[in-house]
Amino acid sequence: MKTIWMEEMNWPDIRRAIASGFDTAVVAVGSTEQHGPHLPTMTDTRVGDALAHRFALKLGNALQARTIPVGVSEHHLAFGATISLKPETLELVIRDYVDSLARDGFRRVIILPCHGGNFVPIAQAVEDARKAHPEMEIAAYTDMATFFRFCSEASAELGISAEESGAHAGELETSIMMALEPTLVARDRLAPGYLGPFGVREIQILSEKGMPGLTENGVLGDPAKASAERGEVYLEKVTDFWLRSIQRADS
Question: Which of 101, 131, 137, 229 has the fewest CB atoms within 10 Å of its CB?
Fold first, then answer.
C-alpha cells in the first residue's frame, strides 16, 4: 500500500486493505483551541495526526482514520481562538466513528486522546461503543494522570523540569510542533506561563475558572528551551508509551 491514511485512500483500496488483514483502525482525538501566543490552534490535532500515524505503523496491520479535530475545550474559551464541543457531543461523534468503522469491517478500533479535556468523554464513549459492538475490540488510552506523569518524566530525562515541560503549550508541546510544523511556531513570542504544580487542585481550578484561573497568556509551562530535536524524541517516547499501555491492557 502507498499509504495507511484512510483519507488519502479510495474505497476499493480501503476494502482490499481490510480484507488483507489491515483490520485495525487508529483514531486520534485532537482539539481546536488556543495554545498560547506562539502555537497554532490546530496543535493538538496536528500532534494527534503524527502520533496516530507512528502508532499505526509500529502496531502493524492498521489503517489511520481521520483525526477528530475538535474536542472538549470549554476551559480555553475565555481566550478565544477556540472551538469546543460539549462532552456528550464528543461522545456521540466517537460513537458515530466506531459505528462507521464497524460497518467497514474493522475488527479493532484504538482511540488516542491528544488533549486533556478529551480523556473522560473518550472513556465514556468507549464503554458505550463496546456494548453496541461486542464483536469488536475497542481500546483507548484514558489514564490522564499517568500520561501527564509520563510526559514529565520524559522531559526530565532530557534535562527539562516538569514546570518547564508544562501541561499546555510548554516546552514539550512546543518542541513537538517545532519538529512537525516549524514555520507555525512564533519563536519571537515564546514566554513562560504558569510554572507551579499541576495536580488535582490545579485541574479543579481549570474546571471552575478556566485557563485564566492559572495563566494570563494561555501557557502552562515555559517553551523557552524548546527544540525540534527534543520534539522528535518526545514523539517517539509517547508513541512507544501508548503502544506498551494498549498492549499491556490487551494481555
Answer: 131
